[in-house]
Amino acid sequence: MARAGEAVFVCQNCGAAYRKWSGKCDSCGAWNTIVEEAAPEAAPRGLGGKRGRKLALAGLRGGEAEAPRSVTGIAEFDRVCGGGLVPGSALLVGGDPGIGKSTLLLQVAAALSKKQSVAYVSGEEAIDQVRLRAKRLGLDGSAVGLAAATNLADILATLDDANGPDFAVVDSIQTMYIDTLDSAPGTVAQVRACAAELIRVAKRRGVTVFLVGHVTKEGMIAGPRVLEHMVDTVLYFEGERGHQFRILRSVKNRFGPTDEIGVFEMTDGGLVEVANPSALFLADRRGDASGAAVFAGMEGTRPVLVEIQALVAPAGLGTPRRAVVGWDAARLAMVLAVLETRCGLVFGNRDVYLNVAGGLRIAEPAADLAVAAALVSSLCDRPVPADCVVFGEIGLSGEVRAVSQTEARLEESRKLGFTRALTPARRGKDAGKTAAEGIRVSEIVELSDLVAAVGAVDAARASRRRSNMETA
């Protein structure tokens, strides 16, 4: 602990403090993130024998009706927020530079301004620059109050006024500063203190505050991790630069479900919500191509169908290459190992490329079986039936484990015209249930059953013979 008046060195990635500078942070392992900051003039003191006021404890059942949520009218945004915005809540929105965070929040602010007062405070752009974006989006007629400021005292005075706004957008929290702190804007101390003050005013006055946060090169929100604990909702705006699709994902929500997603399309006129993302992700699919399988996944409470593409090619160099886009590389290595060990397929002398079409990132283990189907299809050059969807989790012993919300996945597949499904065997309370009408289900117990279902048994044997001959 640094003494009063001494300089302290703080990691800007995790907030760990040191008495001297070093190139690497021992807490998080990041390099060149330790910055010198002024230590507080005095350490916090104890209570010193002073007794506090006894708290009045309330029951769980409230006496007043719950405050109504504010609906923006942008259905995909409202879905991610849990059905609307709760008064007095703080939302943190993060994403890569240029992905569309400011565009999205400007559209949300314009939608909210139709019924309530909204303030948009920018610390990175001038007022004229925000007006240019609003004009390009066709929102220049909205009643949104604009301000360009970075001094938090001025922003708090505006929000805490009797005639203050009902909603406020702060873009971004890393540009704000409190002049009583000696550290620069964007440092751990400034970000933590500014966020705490804004959240305190939001709770006291019932103002809904949107905070825009920068992200690190790993995709995490920059600054102290405690920032995500302080706010009520954390939203990540994701997307690939080469795709027009953008995914708004909820990773924390105190007033709604987590892992919910909203799908948008970036156009010349701004972000346009996509009501049926499954149909959009499958729009360019070719049903007769090998190495592709349709995965019926769940994103929050919504079933989403997406195509998983795999390419297995002979390795030109000594070390085979593994390239993954939209999925976990470690999970791919596990699926490949199980296919080689339990099914006798050979991938060790081949390059493997895996891609989730449309720019969506998949995190749930239920995609294991679809990935395996795409890999087997590409290796043996046998296409998966075009009217078939696949989902299931793979265990290390080669068994296929059941996943949740099977009925919702099958119903969404039926709506999109699929008539077949490769799923895990149902167990427990779901064992006796019938599948959705109009779709034929083939239950996969072992991973070897998948190879047989794809019709690649003979081709797999030929592949092993060729591999043995090449090795010899």
Overall body shape: globular
Helix share bin: 25-40%
Largest sheet report: 9 strands, mixed
- Proportion of beta-strand residues: 15-25%
On the 0 to 100 scale, the average pLDDT is: 87
Number of helices: 12
Strand order, biggest sheet? 6-5-7-8-4-9-10-11-12
In whole angstroms, how far apart are the ends? 65 Å
Secondary structure: number of strands: 21
The rounded Rg comes to: 27 Å
Helix-strand blueprint:
Layout: E1 7-11, E2 17-18, E3 34-38, H1 75-80, E4 90-95, H2 101-112, E5 118-122, H3 127-136, E6 144-148, H4 152-159, E7 167-171, H5 188-205, E8 208-213, H6 226-230, E9 233-238, E10 245-253, E11 261-267, E12 270-273, H7 277-281, E13 292-299, E14 302-314, E15 322-325, H8 329-343, E16 350-356, H9 368-380, E17 388-390, E18 393-394, E19 400-401, H10 406-415, E20 420-424, E21 440-444, H11 447-454, H12 457-471
Helix pairs in contact: 8-9, 9-11
Quick summary of this structure?
The chain is of the alpha/beta class and 472 residues long. Helix content is 26%, strand content 24%.
Tell me about this structure:
This protein has helices at residues 75-80, 101-112, 127-136, 152-159, 188-205, 226-230, 277-281, 329-343, 368-380, 406-415, 447-454, 457-471; strands spanning 7-11, 17-18, 34-38, 90-95, 118-122, 144-148, 167-171, 208-213, 233-238, 245-253, 261-267, 270-273, 292-299, 302-314, 322-325, 350-356, 388-390, 393-394, 400-401, 420-424, 440-444. The chain is an alpha/beta fold. The N and C termini lie far apart (65 Å). The mean pLDDT is 87.
